[in-house]
Amino acid sequence: MKPKLAVWKFASCDGCQLSLLDLEDELLALAGAVELAEFREATSGTVEGPYDLSLVEGSITTAHDAERIRAVRSASKAVVTIGACATAGGIQALRNFGNVDEFVAAVYASPEYISTLETSTPIAAHIPVDFELHGCPVNKHQLLEVVTAFLHGRKPGIPSTSVCTECKRRGVVCVTVAHGTPCLGPVTHAGCGALCPAYNRGCYGCFGPMETPNTAALVPLLRHLGMTDRGVERVFSTFNADAEPFRKAVPRG
Amino acid sequence: MAERRTIRTDYLARVEGEGAMTVRLQDGRVEHVELRIFEPPRFFEALLRGRSCLEAPDITARICGICPVAYQTSAVNALEDLCGVDVPAPIRLLRRLLYCGEWIESHALHVYMLHAPDFLGYAGAVELARDAPQAVERGLALKKTGNQVMSVVGGREIHPINVRVGGFYRAPSRGELRSLVEPLERAREAALETVRWTAGFDFPERTVECTLVALSDDDGYAIERGRIRSDAGLEIAPADYDEHFVEEHVERSTALHSHLRDGGTYLCGPLARFSLNHDQLSDAARDAAHAAGLEAPCRDPFRSIVVRSVELVHACDEALRLIDIYEEPDLPAVPVEPVAGTGYGVSEAPRGLLYHRYRVDGDGTILDAKIVPPTSQNQLAIEDDLRDVVSRNVDLDDDALRGLCEQTIRNYDPCISCATHFLDLEVERR
């Protein structure tokens, strides 16, 4: 029997699950190797659980979703979270540092119609997770590697080093050393292939913190390169703002 | 005899996001139709407050993984409008090329993977591929080409990293763009075949009467900029949007609904663009539309799949033209000094008009933001259409009626992630 693959969506932009459909050369082979038991963006056909592998996109922001993720866990042999929302709460986790009522009132004329939790939290804050794949969005080739590894019962080959190592491997000149451009590469999880430096841009941390980041050493360098305190706070407060090393990197007023 | 039945689909598939629909029938007459959207809100307009306006393209891209370039483009248009910056032609045309990539990617996704299975009776493209592998492979190849354009110009296909206020971080070389010519020429042939393929589907007779709204631009089929026009004679600058269009918050939805200030319903997206701007399509796209039997104005939502296919041909032709005339700009971006004030920006997302407005203080901090995605603008038109479709088809059995309702919604390619997200379809008969 083919292994059952399920894809679940919580608060997110749909981009990480779209990465599966963006595997244009591999999609039909993948769909032939597994039973696509649940993937609403792609098909109205569904098969009941239990599932061999559940891919989870998005963060938990409602009481209903906090219940739903527990049901996903109990129906799944393995749960892999994909992307910054699922692994760190996403950009919507900026509410965790403010007052969610003010957020609601800023967007909606009738806040009483809106039901939401005060926080946006990663999936691992609610259930045990077997593997977390970083990125905003994830790298689709890494996603394929993770799915393949889980279906074969082996450890995914996903490096947990920094973006700096990818610049070296790709032969990209260091934007900080050569141009004095502020860059989060030294503390950011590898996986993008050093995209921003390859386009003459400093890394903005969309893959979240690497395994053991030294943000305390990077912050003075960013300041030395001309970033204001506010600028440093902003650059650590984007798609992985509530990942612990990024949260602790800057004091919040 | 009084009839009362309930049909329910918990979660509508093949749309981007999560929503719900209820249709109530009493004795065969439509009593109530509502499209509920309960995608969890993410509060982008709130979290933009206090950010640097230069961060807006990266942050708003995250509203939607399917059309990030639309968000980035409307954002940079608004902020350049505010700062009085007019980017040089090579930069604007590079933006248009990136946007063509997004149109190709998004339209190929919708035509082949989300919409065609409705016409052919399949649950999805994977199921369709078992019987029609060539068609699905053609769609995937098209989609891949769109993604290649986005990767070369934008750095990656989802949430491109190369877009900034004032231009780009790095302008691609002519050689890099030339690598796209061969795939785009193949994609153009695939797009022409797509028009022939979709034109052969069975279409129920259908006409919607709402006002059609799209951007128009003297320099070509409007994509990355333009003035807001309607088929009822409206023609305004982006800055006048709020005077003519109103957003409203209703209980059933975490998306805000839009309507014309005079109360009328309007529709944006491929049908509106084709109806208003068809004479600016490339020759091949216009000929393909003619051969497919499309006439402007086109007010048949079912035929939106053919219009998207025609726009695929145009986007391939346009991308090839832009690559052919491309000159590397002297600088990848022009300098932008934030000023205090309000900026307005629009562009044509694959699903229709996307409006951004930012009020910014003197050091470039965003004081407030307003973002109106195409799906919330189309929501009332979708509900009107559903009401009419159901009332004309009450004799269908529950399964057939549910299928027709789902297809009616997918005709609009709703992106609920944008508008917020969850479609769960419920038909009650009493």
For the record, the CATH architecture of the largest domain in chain A stands as: 3-Layer(aba) Sandwich
Radius of gyration of chain B: 21 Å
Number of helices of chain B: 15
Numbering strands along the chain, what is their spatial order in the largest sheet of chain A? 2-1-3-4-5
Question: What share of the residues of chain A does DSSP label as strand, in percent?
Answer: 5-15%
CATH topology of the largest domain in chain A: Rossmann fold
Tell me the overall shape of chain B: globular
User: The biggest beta sheet of chain B, please?
Assistant: 4 strands, mixed
- Which structural class do the helices and strands of chain B define? alpha+beta
Overall residue-averaged pLDDT value of chain A: 94
CATH superfamily of the largest domain in chain A: NADH:ubiquinone oxidoreductase-like, 20kDa subunit
Average predicted confidence as pLDDT of chain B = 90
For the record, give the distance between the C-alpha atoms at the N and C termini of chain B, rounded to a whole number: 10 Å
User: Strand-and-helix sequence of chain A, N→C?
Assistant: EHHEEHEHHEHHHHHHH
CATH fold annotation of the domain at 57-206 and 282-342 in chain B: Cytochrome-c3 Hydrogenase, chain B
Q: What level of helicity do the residues of chain A show?
A: 25-40%
Q: In CATH's first tier, which class of the domain at 57-206 and 282-342 in chain B applies?
A: Mainly Alpha
- Number of E strands of chain A: 5
* Low-confidence spans of chain B: 420-426
Describe this entry's structure for a reader.
The complex is a heterodimer of chains A (253) and B (430). Chain A is α/β, with parallel strands linked by helices and 253 residues long. Chain A folds into 2 domains: 4-151, Rossmann fold; 163-249, no CATH class. Chain A has 12 helices and 5 strands. Chain A has a 5-stranded parallel sheet, sandwiched between helices. In chain A, strand 3 (51-57), helix 3 and strand 4 form a beta-alpha-beta unit. The longest helix of chain A has 12 residues, at 63-74. The model of chain A has no long low-confidence stretch (mean pLDDT 94). Chain B has a domain at 57-206 and 282-342: Cytochrome-c3 Hydrogenase, chain B. Helix content of chain B is 44%, strand content 17%. Chain B is built from 15 helices and 15 strands. Chain B has helices at 44-47, 56-61, 68-83, 89-120, 125-131, 133-154, 174-178, 181-199, 241-244, 270-277, 283-291, 304-324, 374-392, 398-410, 416-419; strands at 6-9, 20-26, 29-36, 163-164, 167-168, 211-216, 227-230, 235-236, 245-248, 257-260, 266-267, 341-349, 352-360, 366-372, 425-429. In chain B, helix 4 runs antiparallel to helix 12 and helix 8 (181-199) packs antiparallel against helix 12. The chains are: A alpha/beta (253), B alpha+beta (430).
